[in-house]
Amino acid sequence: MGRVVVVGSLNVDLVTHVERHPKPGETVLGSGLQRMAGGKGANQAVAASEAGATVVMVGRVGSDEAGSAYVARLSALGIDAASIRVAPDWPTGHALITVDEAGENSIVVVAGANASVALDDLEVLELVGPGDIVLVQLEVPLEVVTAAVRRASARGARVVLNLAPYAALPPDVLALADPVVVNEHEALLLADSDAIALSLVVTFGAAGAAWEGDRLTGPVVDPPEVLDTTGAGDAFCGALSAALAAGADRLEALQTALAAGADAVRHFGAQRDPAL
């Protein structure tokens, strides 16, 4: 069984709950304020670990209490945090999240130390090989994403590229990923670009997901059970990568990923028990 090496972001999520999301220029009252572990990279690393994978996390935190607490959290969950570096002149990344009564979220990300992730942070990729999965998203500098994909592929590792938040990447980078993972909105943006993903997974929320010609629906979650959709896509990507690292075929990996995404909406926060 290969490892899952995640190159990505670590954010502290500041979460409040609202009756409904505000319109432009409008103020609404929030209920409570929670500090939770988040960031697409770390969310996916935790999901992959929960799905049974051996996980390595690559990224940066600030030299603040939030950053040290986050590294300690990941280590306690069994994730190899040795490749998480401290950026002394940066704060740890944050995300400001509002969740409405239907469990839908609105998110503003402040990159912080995630913006300082550099090419020399990718040293651990010299050790990957066939059987390993390198999982990347786009909350760190795009030159780092591009380099990570190319280096991992050159060493025989399989790349899973979550094209979120959407940005244009070189065509060869998209072509190296197996698969590129996008939601419906990101799929439209990709379709409007000149780039082509040779292996593409599109997620449809409660309606399931499709990997090229294979489409599956996931477990049904009754509306009263939906507490928070934050991180559901990250749970999907992490579990998908873990399944692929374990040797699952396309349909098995999709089923595992859909189950993880369905489970994620049943708890508050992007990660299970996410308090920092």
Record the SSE blueprint.
Layout: E1 3-7, E2 11-17, E3 31-38, H1 40-50, E4 54-62, H2 65-76, E5 80-87, E6 93-99, E7 105-110, E8 133-136, H3 142-154, E9 158-162, H4 171-176, E10 180-183, H5 184-192, E11 200-203, E12 209-211, E13 214-216, H6 232-245, H7 250-264
Parallel strand pairs: 1-4, 1-8, 2-6, 4-5, 8-9, 9-10, 10-11
Antiparallel strand pairs: 2-3, 6-7, 11-12, 12-13
Helix pairs in contact: 1-6, 6-7
How would you characterize the overall build of this protein?
The protein is of the alpha/beta class and 276 residues long. Helices cover 29% and strands 26% of the residues. The protein contains seven helices and 13 strands. It has helices at 40-50, 65-76, 142-154, 171-176, 184-192, 232-245, 250-264; strands spanning 3-7, 11-17, 31-38, 54-62, 80-87, 93-99, 105-110, 133-136, 158-162, 180-183, 200-203, 209-211, 214-216. Strands 5-4-1-8-9-10-11-12-13 form a nine-stranded mixed beta sheet, with helices on both faces. Strands 3-2-6-7 form a four-stranded mixed beta sheet. Helix 1 packs across helix 6 (232-245) and helix 6 (232-245) runs antiparallel to helix 7. It is globular. It starts with a strand and ends in a 12-residue tail after the last helix. The mean pLDDT is 93.
